[in-house]
Specification:
CATH architecture of the largest domain in chain B: 3-Layer(aba) Sandwich
Radius of gyration of chain B: 28 Å
Oligomer: heterodimer
CATH superfamily of chain A: Pyruvate-ferredoxin oxidoreductase, PFOR, domain III
Number of strands of chain B: 24
Number of helices of chain B: 22
Strand content of chain B: 15-25%
Number of domains of chain B: 4
CATH topology of the largest domain in chain B: Rossmann fold
Strand order of the largest sheet of chain A: 2-3-1-4-5-6
Largest sheet of chain A: 6 strands, mixed
Strand order of the largest sheet of chain B: 3-2-4-5-7-6-12
Number of strands of chain A: 6
Largest interface: A-B, 65 and 70 residues
């Protein structure tokens, strides 16, 4: 498949979340679909030492011409940031954001231990979402975890957000390619994942139509 | 997620650097692979093991890196190509064998893959292993991309065989854990047959080539080693993995290797300096391709070295420059020595942009800085974000173990402490482990150092010492320390936190699980029986039975001048959850019993116990279970003094 021209090369995407939310799978699915679409990609999942509940950020660089992009974004150079967790999106926005950035945010917070123990405070959620809006050229607010619970399990959160990302047209990926990848990578849970993907797509497209 | 075993030449797959290394080994026709888990190297074996049987390969998670590398060497000496992979710390464990293996050389290709962790994101330190290769005359290859991880691993086997010595392929976290496009070549169709040809011949007995010393004399073997190694340079001169990209006479020439090459290349593009700056990419960093390097040294009178941690390339190129004839040009060198490049921590695109801009005398403005107001808002927002510190997972048995240790040491009242070890148990040094771990160094170091503390009684030392290690760490390096303590009557308690897996690196099996790397049953080694065979006092408890665990510990740490063992047995919660796919308990807080800050317990449930599944609702001033995070282990019900946290068996 031949790759479409990019608005910027490399096009830089960050998926930000918390260990256990499915960051790594999501970035892998995106990367696989992009390779099928004829692009060069690098995908780095920065998860540090924790199995669960540490900050995770996947850096995805998409290029039409360069097979050797470096694995990390540099400051202020994100084109799209997806947050599976709101303050993780904001954390990455403060480092990699710029006035042209597009953001997609899940509204469900996961409290850090420092907050649970009372050492630190989790910022007000509505204010956080508003800050993200203010700092983005375009922003989509998605209740992905809530929708995932309706599908029976919070684990579908990441695929709903993946649908939202496709729906936003922020990266050069079409739904059909992603469906093929989903079928190949997760044949057992394919039906529910398809539901999740389309739920995310619709959520963003409905907002667009409003 | 990947399928590295398909035989479709020309196909492109999205592979992790580590998966690409595994593919490279397959394309090289390996028959034998060994490893001990260690981030960021674990995915190499994790990728090879499940397909090993199908591919006709023997694959093993070994008990430690030393045995892993020794076993792989046996395959090489018997005409089978072999791979051994480990993290930087693992190389320290194999050094003794490695030094001696260099004396004899090897037969069939033997490749040691080392994954360093600049920045020490998942390690106790940020050791650079490359100087070990230089020190021991080991050919050193540094791939820069996932594609090169595959291609250079494959080449490393040819080079190793050609030279008759082990070759080292060195990766780093940002390479091992980055996925990229990898184009496959064909898998070899070979049949392998193993024989050890230097075996003793009854009619003509002579010293085997694969022995050190005696008739061979170490100094003679050193001479032979240098002779073998001297041939490496010619191979490196011709290597396609060394290249130059840039104008004929650049203002500045950058020497770089590995992942730093991608930073340098991108930084030059971002700074728009392609016409002024040239880049020498070194894939073979030891030995240096001397002619190639000296040829490019003449291009510019300014040379900048971009590499992580040790100034290996910088020092090697400067050594070479010093040995060149006096009429050759002498450029000015910039790098770690001149402090234009940070000498610690990992490099990244920002740092490299900054280094290049400083040396060439230009400035850089990021997209962020296009609006001063935007940038200052970002700075303000960053101040308000809570950190996300490391923690034990919800339901982790180690939270219970460290809780019990803390209470027991408090009740004992003699200022006792824990000597810690590598793995998930290391989090005992921070808040989720109640800060109990007071020393932390190396695999097996917990029980080792406890041996010394346990003999300080004659100098007035009265503090109880509890050495802690995980089950995989126990097998890896803690057994000699325990035996030493038993033998010499050292006064410490070894607590083995047995969660039946190697959790921190991704749930690899170990001798105590009885499963092997390929998922087949091996012979299970029973930790309790092994300890009892030493004649040491052994207790076994489930840490979730807090009262019993605390009582047992209190008895053990009484000063009786002997080493003792307690095994805290409880399976890793993530392993249990993956298998059973349901929670053992439904947990909830009865709001009528939770009296919030009035309780006088100092919010023991959230402030002190700090499980991510049990959170504090600021609106109601009471504890509440976070259903999306809680694993239903039931432990917190025992911690609440009001009995407000309740569990219902599911």
């Amino acid at each position: 498949m031949s790759a479409r021209e990019l608005s910027k090369d490399p096009l830089n995407v960050i998926i930000a979340g918390v260990g256990g939310q499915g960051n790594v799978l999501m970035s892998f699915l995106i990367g696989s679909a992009l390779i099928r679409s004829g692009y060069f990609v690098t995908v780095f999942d920065n998860y540090g030492a924790s199995q669960r509940l540490g900050a995770v950020a996947s850096h995805i660089k998409i290029s039409r011409e360069d097979a050797n992009t470096s694995p990390l974004l540099h400051e202020g150079d994100a084109d799209v940031i997806v947050g599976i967790e709101p303050i993780e999106l904001l954390r990455n926005l403060t480092r990699f954001g710029n006035p042209e950035v597009i953001t997609i945010v899940n509204t469900r917070p996961v409290y850090p231990v420092s907050v649970i123990s009372g050492d630190e405070e989790y910022p007000d959620l509505d204010k956080t979402i508003q800050t993200i809006r203010n700092l983005s050229a375009q922003s989509w607010i998605v209740n992905a975890t809530e929708e995932a619970m309706k599908l029976g399990n919070s684990i579908y959160t990441n695929v709903i957000l993946l649908g939202a990302l496709l729906g936003s047209n922020a990266i050069p990926l079409d739904k059909e390619t992603m469906e093929v990848v989903l079928k190949e990578e997760m044949p057992k849970a394919f039906d529910t994942n398809m539901l999740a993907l389309h739920r995310g797509l619709d959520m963003v497209r409905n907002t667009m139509n409003e | 997620m990947s399928n590295i075993e398909i035989d479709e030449p020309g196909t492109t797959q999205l592979l992790l650097g580590n998966e690409a290394i595994a593919r490279g080994a397959l394309e090289a026709g390996i028959g034998f692979a060994t490893a001990y888990p260690g981030t960021p190297s674990s995915e190499i074996m994790a990728t090879l093991a499940p397909i090993a049987k199908k591919m006709g390969i023997y694959a093993e998670w070994s008990i430690n890196e030393m045995v892993a590398f020794e076993a792989a060497s046996a395959a090489s000496l018997s005409n089978i190509r072999a791979l051994s992979s480990m993290k930087a710390n693992g190389v320290n464990v194999i050094i003794d064998f490695l030094v001696n293996l260099q004396m004899t050389g090897i037969k069939k290709g033997l490749v040691l893959v080392v994954c360093d962790d600049p920045g020490g994101m998942t390690s106790s330190n940020e050791q650079d292993t490359r100087p070990i290769a230089k020190w021991l005359n080991i050919p050193l290859l540094e791939p820069s991309t996932a594609q090169e991880c595959k291609d250079m691993t494959k080449w490393a086997f040819e080079l190793s065989e050609e030279l008759g010595m082990v070759c080292m392929v060195r990766s780093v976290t940002y390479l091992s854990h980055t996925r990229g496009n990898v184009r496959f070549e064909k898998l070899p169709d070979i049949s392998m047959e193993a024989t050890f040809a230097d075996a003793y011949e009854i009619d003509n007995p002579k010293q085997s080539r694969f022995t050190c010393g005696m008739q061979f004399h170490p100094y003679k073997q050193s001479e032979a080693l240098l002779k073998r190694f001297s041939k490496a340079q010619a191979h490196c001169e011709d290597s396609p993995f060394n290249s130059y990209n840039g104008p004929n006479t650049p203002e500045l020439i950058i020497f770089t290797s590995g992942i730093c090459w991608t930073y340098a290349t991108e930084a030059v593009k971002i700074l728009n300096l392609q016409d002024r700056v040239g880049i020498v990419k070194l894939g073979t960093t030891w030995p240096l391709p001397e002619e190639f390097v000296s040829r490019h040294l003449e291009r510019s009178n300014k040379v900048l070295f971009i590499e992580e941690i040790s100034p290996l390339v910088e020092q090697s190129v400067m050594e070479l420059a010093a040995s060149l004839p006096a009429d050759r040009p002498r450029p000015t060198f910039y790098g770690k020595r001149s402090r234009h490049v940070r000498a610690w921590g990992e490099q990244d695109l920002n740092l490299v942009i900054h280094s290049i801009a400083t040396v060439i005398g230009t400035s850089y403005r990021s997209r962020q800085s296009s609006s001063a107001e935007y940038q200052s808002t970002l700075k303000e927002v960053a101040q308000t974000l809570p950190a996300r510190p490391l923690t034990f997972c919800p339901g982790c048995p180690h939270r219970a173990s460290f809780w019990a240790i803390k209470i027991a040491l408090q009740l004992d009242g003699r200022n006792g402490f824990v000597t810690g070890d590598i793995g998930c148990t290391a989090m005992g040094m921070i808040s989720p482990g109640s800060f109990q771990v007071r020393t932390y160094y190396a695999m097996g170091g917990g029980v080792g150092i406890a041996n010394g503390f346990g003999h300080l009684g004659q100098f007035g030392f009265r503090q109880p010492v509890i050495a802690v290690c995980g089950d995989s760490t126990f097998f890896h390096a803690s057994i000699p320390g325990l035996i030493n303590g038993v033998w010499n009557k050292s006064n410490f308690t070894l607590a083995i936190l047995d969660n039946s897996t190697t959790a921190m690196t991704g749930f690899q099996p170990h001798p105590g699980t009885g499963m092997t790397a390929t998922g087949e049953p091996g012979n299970k080694v029973n930790i309790e029986a092994l300890c009892r065979s030493l004649g040491v006092h052994v207790e076994v408890c489930d840490p979730f039975d807090l009262t019993n665990t605390i009582t047992t510990l209190l008895k053990l740490i009484k000063d009786d001048g002997n080493a003792k063992v307690v095994i805290f047995q409880h399976e890793c919660e993530l392993v249990r959850a993956r298998r059973e796919r349901k929670k053992p308990y439904h947990m909830y807080v009865d709001p009528s019993r939770c009296i919030g800050e009035e309780c006088g317990c100092n919010r023991i449930c959230t402030r002190v116990f700090s499980c991510p599944g049990l959170v504090w609702d600021r609106d109601t001033g009471k504890a509440v279970i976070d259903e999306a995070v809680c694993e239903g282990c039931g432990l917190c019900a025992e911690v609440c003094p009001q009995g407000a946290i309740l569990k219902e068996a599911l």
